[in-house]
Structure formats: C-alpha cells, structure tokens
Write a structure and sequence with these properties.
two-stranded antiparallel ribbon, outer membrane lipoprotein receptor (LolB), chain A, globular, single chain, alpha+beta, DUF6544
C-alpha cells in the first residue's frame, strides 16, 4: 500500500524533472544558435556607415560606437534586475541575456532570495516566444505564452541599449526621421516586423527608447560607460511594462561582445 502511494508522486516528479531538463537543453541550444549569428568576418565601425541616416540616428551611433571599434552584433549581458511576475511584488534577480538583433534574444533569471528561490526565462527566436518561471528550478508557475510581437519589440529596445551595432542599416534595419532629436528604426526577422523609437541628446546620448504607440514600453537609460569601444548604459528603468514582460529596472554588471568564431554565421 505504501509503495503504491509513493509511485504516483515519484512518477510526477520524474516527469517534471524530464520536462525541465528538456527545456534547459532547448535553452542551451537556442543560446548557441543566437551566439552563432555573430558575423564570421571582423569589420570595424566607420562614420560613413551612418552618413545617410536621419540626424538623431547618426548622432546615436556616433555616440554609442567609437570609430574603429569592431562591429559586434551579438552581446551577452549580465545584470541585476527587478522583475514582477503577475501581481506579485517585484523581486531582485540576476539576469543573463544574449542579444542577437534582429534575430532574437534569450534571457535567464535567477532569484537572489533563497527563501523564494525561483528561476525563469524569456525567449523570442524564429517566430517563437515564451516567458516561463519555475519554483525551486523544477515546479512551473507564472508561465505565459507571451506575444511574439511584444517580445520582439522588447528585443529591439534592448538592442538600442546594449547592442547598437545590430541596429546598423547593414543589418537590414530601416531608419526614419521623426525630428532632429528622434528617429524610428524598423527591424525585420523572417515574417516579423517591428519598430522602435529613440530620442537622443545633442551629444547623441540616448535619452529614451520605446516601442510604438502611446502605451508602449519606455526605457530610460543612465550611467553610460565605455565597454570595448561601445558607450552603453549601466542603469535602465522601464516604464509601461506589460504584465508578461520583465524586468522593471536593470543594473549592468558585465557585458561581453561575441566575436567571430568557427561556428559563426557567414551572413
């Protein structure tokens, strides 16, 4: 009798463990696929690459990328962030993100509170999107079939913050003038098309970046520092964040630019 009572809980745990291992494998494969999107050749930034862009876009790139800097479109970012899952109070997490605009993005979240241990991820890649969380790294909760469009927009916002080389026209991004201090960038990946808007100071420093529409997410960066030739923010606050999208704020701990390697794309 006791054995039969234990079989079902053990079987349920085994199924959960198998599903979790499968998801971890999928995440690792996606991370590697995004890393492979870095160009196989090493090319450096030159002012002529942005000569024909709207004034605000040109200022943005000239501030964000120093002339002669190797162009890195794939970036790994480690940060400390505050996220909100559903209607729960914001929690502090360590975030590991890989950005490969306009192809996709994957973020992994790990809670810093040992009493409320949870992890999660958000993904947009090849027309797929998901937002998932686990308690004690195994029990799913707060998962969401997040909108591909919304997560693709968020990837564009993150690229403007930490991976500006991915938004250069050479990557198929189309820039349109809004004013002398604002511009719109339109990205395409497969059947997905999404726009983001930036506003810059006279120096070209990013004032904010947002999605389209009056209720769009707005990212307000600060604390700009030089990372291997890229001038990027170390603090970002996000406003009008949809319930399914995280984080609410972010503090950059480390940035790594993925350079050419044997498995890199020849695109």
């Amino acid at each position: 009798m006791l054995l039969s009572l234990l079989i079902f809980p053990l079987l349920a745990l085994a199924i959960l463990a198998w599903q979790r291992l499968k998801q971890l494998h999928e995440d690792d494969s996606t991370w590697a696929a995004l890393a492979s999107k870095t160009p196989w050749h090493d090319e450096s930034f030159d002012e002529t690459m942005v000569a024909g862009l709207p004034v605000a876009a040109r200022r943005f790139f000239l501030f964000a990328i120093r002339p002669g800097t190797p162009l890195r479109t794939v970036v790994e970012v480690k940060s400390t962030a505050k996220i909100s899952i559903g209607h729960r109070p914001p929690a502090e997490v360590t975030t590991y993100q890989i950005l490969a605009a306009p192809h996709g993005s994957l973020s992994r979240y790990y809670s810093k509170n040992s009493l409320a241990l949870f992890s999660g991820n958000s993904l947009v890649y090849e027309g797929r999107a998901c937002l998932r969380f686990w308690c004690w790294k195994m029990f799913p909760f707060g998962s969401s079939g997040a909108s591909v469009t919304v997560l693709f927009e968020r990837m564009g916002i993150d690229a403007a913050l930490w991976a500006p080389a991915g938004l250069l026209p050479r990557n198929g991004v189309i820039w349109q003038e809004i004013s002398d201090t604002a511009a719109r960038a339109t990205m395409t990946s497969g059947e997905l098309t999404q726009s983001i808007e930036i506003m810059v100071q006279p120096t070209g420093q990013l004032e904010w970046v947002r999605g389209p529409g009056p209720d769009a997410t707005i990212a307000v960066p600060s604390g700009f520092r030089l990372f291997d030739g890229y001038q990027l923010p170390t603090n970002v606050k996000f406003q009008n964040v949809p319930e399914a999208i995280v984080p609410l704020s972010s503090r950059t701990d480390a940035i790594r630019f993925v350079g050419p390697w044997i498995g890199a794309s020849h695109a």
